[in-house]
Amino acid sequence: MDKLKAAFDFRGRASRLEFWRYQLLQALGGGLILCLTVPATVIGGWLGAIPFLLLLPLIVACVCVAIRRLHDRNRRAWWLLLFLFGPFALAGLGGTLAASEETFLIALLVSLAGMGLAIWGWVEMGFLRGAKGATHFGPEPSRLG
């Protein structure tokens, strides 16, 4: 029960291992839910999309662990907005700019910047070591959990 409660807690810090466990859980759980939703929708119409609602708690848990992982890197939760929405915003801007031949190179550079931002977020949360010792976000997470 403590693990379930911790899954939805924004406070504290999360280790790289915990972050990757939740990423794996999200990928497997999301794939399973999608595999259930598609045939259920074909058979039952729009009511078959109800299993799709099971994604909401899964997404919330992954956002919580990503915030705790940023805390472990001694960063505030606002960085998650940059890492989640920044690449999409830059890709959308690049797509808009690509409509004109004159701005194609700028569109390419803006889109590449979005891809770079996504990679930076992935490396920041998934691969870089957390801050050593206690920070104002809490004590250092255990290496096993």
TrEMBL record:
Key words of the record: Membrane, Transmembrane, Transmembrane helix
One Pfam family here: DUF805
Domain of life assignment: Bacteria
Sections of the chain in a coiled coil: none
InterPro entries, alphabetized: DUF805
UniProt-listed PANTHER family: BLR8105 PROTEIN (PTHR34980:SF3), INNER MEMBRANE PROTEIN-RELATED-RELATED (PTHR34980)
Organism annotation: Caulobacter henricii
Membrane spanning residue stretches: 20-40, 46-67, 79-98, 104-123
Record protein name field: DUF805 domain-containing protein
Gene Ontology cellular-component annotations: plasma membrane
Keyword Ubl conjugation: no
